[in-house]
Amino acid sequence: MSDRTERPVVIVSNRGPVSYRVEDGQLVGTRGAGGLVSGLAPLLDSGRASWIAAALSDADRAAVADRVSAPDGLAVRLLDLDPKDQALAYDLISNQTLWFIHHGLFDLTRSPSYTADWLEAWEAYRRVNQVFAQAVCESAPVDAAVLIQDYHLTLMAPTLASERPDLSTVHFHHTPFAGPDMLRVLPAAARDEMLTSLNAYDACGFHTQDWAENFEQDLRRWPHATSEVVVPAKAKVFASSLSTDAGDLRSTAGSERCVEHLRSLEEQIADSQLIVRIDRMELSKNIVRGFQAFDLLLQQRSDLHGQVVFLACCYPSRENVPEYARYKEEVLAEVERVNARWGTAIWQPILLETNDNYLRSVAALRRYDVLLVNPIRDGLNLVAKEGPLVNDRFGTLVLSTEAGAWAELQSAALGINPFDVEQTAEMMGLALDLDPSDRKTRATYLAGLVAERTPLDWLEDQLAAAG
């Protein structure tokens, strides 16, 4: 077995670190951003790791067909999956079933309803996992550590254990993990297959101890979950929180283009206090209740009229999923309602930005007085960590106790029950009213808490779990 600091590593995920586009008739590859990529990029850049991911666009698939090299000489392999299998596995199983179960989003009086179509989709999900597993078996160096990321790829372990017993495999969930009360919603055969496979990895990681304990409770609740493959020893279960790359984020925040966005924002809001939220427009982020709480705050506090603006950078996501499309309409309607109720000729209470603009979002994080992060359930929520690192105004974090980040940041954030609109309004008001010295003390302490962990810490935890 190779020394842990030198052994080769294979990273596996649905979305990879590289994507392609057609520019002037040529395929051009660009590196992605985000928590997962920043957390694992050091290994990839070192030449020690390779990355296997799905081709997600027509340009990606063309790059696979044309064998286009990844930018910067990175060892990235994209898999051109069967289009129907990919759609069923990603849309129906990953996003409309597993995501909903792990985040507690199903209205059980109405959904889910499993039919033959769903069972066909689960078979597609299994086949996609098998394609990924075979790609690892074919290309992984001897004795490599294989780091498999997230809920899209839970069924790979039995094949890897059978065909490549030399590999050390780690699966890491970036979402919450459902406990028995929600996991029971899955059909028994699918639930047992997933638990059996996860238990066949050498280790399973989660962002918080709560999610890890949920997984262990599931294994105790269904101890006789079986599959066609006999699994080896029980997986090691561990918790490890991802953090953001502070240096990279601060560099972005100080860039001229970001500063331009900040100037534009300052022109919009002048000297108003600013509440900010940055989210994908999806159900677990609890956007509508956040606006309802702001509406209640304005109802209770006439002194804030014209003095505070709520900037919501919320971009649409998964619009092919009916529940998401409906939620987008609810978000837009709530913004319109609040602005119609309280707005004046010179003051718009809510500014809603729906196009995904990373630099504008970072500029907003620099300027907030209050950062609202109120998901009904979240595996971690990196925005809660990113804001304190770049904020210029000693802003205050109002954070849902159901976000994974709460486990780390609760001593410096103002906590809220995400379902309690009254409490959310109260905490936003309290945050706006904090004494400047208290605000500075709290914000400084919060930034220090965030800085205690780096993406490398998270990466090292996975490598340690691999053995």
**Gyration radius over CA:** 23 Å
Number of domains: 2
Broad structural category: alpha/beta
Could you tell me the number of beta strands?
A: 15
Give me the number of helical elements: 18
In terms of quaternary structure, the protein is: single chain
Relative strand content = 15-25%
Please give the alpha-carbon distance between the first and last residues.
Answer: 9 Å
Q: Characterize the biggest β-sheet.
A: 7 strands, parallel
CATH architecture of the largest domain: 3-Layer(aba) Sandwich
What overall form do the CA principal axes indicate? Answer: globular
- Percent in helix: 40-55%
Q: What integer is the average pLDDT? A: 93
CATH superfamily of the largest domain: Glycogen Phosphorylase B
What would CATH call the class of the largest domain? Alpha Beta
Strand arrangement within the widest β-sheet reads 5-4-1-6-7-8-9
The CATH topology of the largest domain? Rossmann fold
Question: How does this model look, in words?
Answer:
One of its GO terms (molecular function) is alpha,alpha-trehalose-phosphate synthase (UDP-forming) activity. The chain is α/β, with parallel strands linked by helices. It has two domains: 9-242 and 456-466, 3-Layer(aba) Sandwich (Rossmann fold), CATH 3.40.50.2000; 246-451, Glycogen Phosphorylase B (Rossmann fold), CATH 3.40.50. The protein has helices spanning 35-46, 58-65, 83-103, 116-139, 157-163, 180-183, 188-200, 209-221, 246-253, 256-269, 287-300, 322-342, 358-367, 383-390, 406-409, 421-433, 436-451, 455-466; strands at residues 9-12, 18-23, 26-31, 49-54, 76-79, 145-149, 168-172, 203-206, 236-239, 273-281, 308-316, 350-353, 370-373, 396-400, 414-416. A seven-stranded parallel beta sheet has the order 5-4-1-6-7-8-9, with helices on both faces. The chain has a six-stranded parallel beta sheet with strand order 12-11-10-13-14-15, sandwiched between helices. A two-stranded antiparallel sheet has the order 2-3. Helix 14 links the parallel strand 13 (370-373) and strand 14. It is globular and about 70 Å long.
